[in-house]
Write a structure and sequence with these properties.
The chain is built from eight helices and no strands. α1 packs antiparallel against α2 and α3 packs antiparallel against α4.
Length: 226
């Protein structure tokens, strides 16, 4: 029974990840609020949700459960869900904000656990562990996102939306590098997508945190995509 499920979940994991990988640039480059942006955003969210959920299930049904894969899937789901909810919170949704708070707490705990798992794998010969790097990213995003006051500060919806979804996209890049860029050393496969992703997230938070950069989504266009 496990083997057919494993195959199905693996296909969903890989397929969802590649769907997110392909859809993200279309959403980022499209005019915000346009039909193309909304459609690409929906495909990205679908791909991330499917890929991350399948990754969590894969980790649970393996004969040798992979704790790191399970935790990374939870962190990716946290990024995707908070990015999805941010525009709705910007429109004043209190229920979305309550879900956001719960997910942020869960994402922070999963990130701490991922860091711990990375520390267990840490050696002098292999000091760069994916759990440490991506767990640190998750913890940083969770800490920054926790400071958002939601409906009381609706103008920040855009920066929180972008931060979470760019962090989710960083996880996809890490997945691609880890599996397919085999010519690079293992440390480089972990660090390159993480460093680039963190730099872009840092830029986006500075850019869209400027006064007037992210007004409340009255038209709701961008956030329908998330």
């Amino acid at each position: 029974m496990v083997e057919p499920l494993y195959t199905v979940f693996r296909v969903l994991h890989v397929g969802g990840s590649f769907l997110a990988f392909a859809a993200a640039p279309l959403a980022l480059l499209a005019i915000k609020g346009s039909r193309r942006h909304i459609l690409a955003g929906r495909f990205f969210t679908l791909g991330m949700g499917t890929g991350a959920t399948a990754g969590v299930l894969l980790a649970g049904i393996r004969p040798d459960p992979v704790v790191g894969l399970f935790l990374l899937g939870l962190v990716a789901l946290f990024f995707t869900a908070t990015g999805y909810l941010a525009p709705r919170i910007g429109r004043g949704s209190r229920s979305s904000y309550r879900w956001d708070r719960a997910l942020t707490a869960a994402g922070g705990l999963a990130s701490l656990a991922l860091i711990y798992d990375g520390l267990l794998e840490f050696t002098r010969a292999a000091p760069v562990q994916e759990g440490l790097v991506l767990g640190g990213l998750g913890l940083g995003v969770a800490a920054a996102h926790a400071r958002w006051r939601g409906p009381a500060d609706p103008s920040r919806w855009r920066v929180e939306h972008l931060t979470s979804l760019l962090a989710a996209y960083t996880v996809v890049w890490s997945f691609i590098f880890g599996l397919y860029i085999r010519m690079l050393p293992s440390a480089a496969r972990v660090l390159i997508p993480a460093v680039v992703g963190i730099a872009i997230i840092w830029w986006a938070r500075r850019r869209f945190a400027e006064p007037g950069a992210g007004r409340g989504p009255a038209a709701g266009a961008v956030t329908q995509a998330a």
